[in-house]
Write a structure and sequence with these properties.
Distance between the termini: 52 Å
Order of helices and strands: HHHHHHHHHHHHHHHHHHHH
Number of domains: 2
Oligomer: single chain
Number of helices: 20
Shape: globular
Structural class: mainly alpha
Largest sheet: none
Length: 390
């Protein structure tokens, strides 16, 4: 009953935000900017972006065996495979910086090396597929690509550095402490599962295909003119796959998991949008915090601005996706692209609550090294990205 009630309030809240009569509201200043930003998000980023992404995340949580991911992290596992799996785990698990902690703890305590374990710890929330999609959709493809690629490279480098720094302890670990992984019988072939996931991702891509600039021709324009035909074909294909390959109980579990993602994320996202609008306004508009304050702290591409953005990101708690509207407001208020990437690479993967739990698993020394590596690498990446795009 509570779940249905929550769904009702979420749907009702979305409809209210979608049809907000801003022209009839006699307001101005930060409150108006907040409402305007909420309406824009409801219209542009929920139905065709977030809803399909929730279903992808729900499918991942139901149909991708967690055991098939973590079995590659053991001490005797192939190192190339271990780091490869760890570095892309975020796209499979779609978790936040706090949700990943029990998984990390279990993996590490059951025998995973500190290298693959910390690569997994960073990658899990850093390349959350929902967040990557939203970053590219809202903040631009440059930041979206830089965040995705940067997070994968980060996770491998951080894992390798943690392994090298604590190599003596790693060598003393019981080499027999491999992960125990249960064999899971798959009801569908790898090809069937691949087609199923590929169709959902392709629908998300084509349904959100951006309108080309005026006068632009070529493949981009051709795809845009056919986007709804392609999206419709993919939906029909998905429907056929679901009827033929999936059991009724599996589909119910998929829908339930997708709704759970929506329950977890949408209210927090709404709060993030409201706070971003009040404090920072919309791009080009002022909120409570004047743009010159932001520009002075994180404007440009200096070492200090990138380091400041990394530190703030590391200690703040970003619920899944809330960093996107907050950063949108910061960029509109004068934040540089370099510091924006620095915050994106440090923020979602770390937070003060996250650090406290990691310390309980790894100890103070290893936690301090891990956090320092994230902050330093985020700062350097921000500077490099700022030079490249600026």
């Amino acid at each position: 009953m509570k779940k249905h009630l929550k769904s009702f309030f979420i749907v009702a809240g979305f409809i209210l935000c979608y049809f907000l009569p801003l022209k009839q509201i006699n307001l101005s200043g930060p409150l108006f900017e907040s409402l305007a930003l909420v309406k824009w998000y409801a219209r542009e980023h929920v139905l065709l972006c977030l809803v399909p992404a929730f279903f992808i995340a729900g499918a991942i949580s139901i149909f991708v065996s967690q055991a098939s991911v973590i079995k590659y992290f053991g001490a005797k596992a192939n190192k190339f495979l271990a780091y490869s799996v760890a570095s892309i785990s975020g796209t499979i698990l779609a978790v936040c910086s706090c949700t990943v902690l029990p998984l990390f703890s279990g993996i590490y305590k059951r025998g995973a090396g500190i290298g693959p374990a910390t690569a997994f710890l960073y990658s899990g929330p850093a390349i959350n597929i929902l967040a990557i999609i939203m970053t590219a959709r809202v903040l631009g493809w440059e930041l979206g690509v830089a965040r995705g690629v940067g997070a994968i490279v980060f996770s491998v480098i951080i894992g390798l550095l943690m392994h090298l720094i604590f190599i003596k302890e790693e060598r003393n670990k019981d080499s027999a402490a491999d992960l125990i992984v249960e064999e899971v019988k798959e009801d569908r072939s790898l090809l069937q599962n691949g087609l199923y996931f590929a169709s959902m991702v392709a629908f998300l891509v084509f349904a959100n295909w951006a309108k080309p600039q005026s006068g632009e021709t070529g493949l981009w324009s051709l795809v845009f003119s056919m986007k709804w035909y392609l999206s419709g074909f993919l939906l029909l294909s998905l429907s056929a796959m679901m009827m033929k390959w999936f059991k009724k109980d599996e589909l119910k579990g998929w829908v339930s998991a997708s709704i759970s993602f929506a329950h977890q994320i949408l209210p927090l996202l709404l709060i993030g949008v409201i706070v971003a609008g009040v404090l920072l306004g919309r791009p080009g508009e002022e909120g409570l915090i004047p743009s010159w304050v932001i520009a002075k702290a994180v404007g440009g591409n200096s070492l200090l601005s990138n380091f400041f953005a990394s530190i703030v990101g590391a200690f703040m708690y970003f619920a899944t996706l809330t960093e996107v509207p907050i950063l949108q407001g910061l960029i509109g208020s004068g934040m540089g692209k370099g510091p924006a990437l620095a915050l994106l690479l440090a923020g979602p993967a770390l937070s003060l609550p996250n650090m406290l739990v990691i310390r309980g698993v790894l100890g103070t020394k290893k936690t301090a090294v891990y956090v320092s590596l994230v902050v330093i690498m985020a700062t350097i990446s921000g500077i490099i990205f700022g030079v490249m795009v600026g």
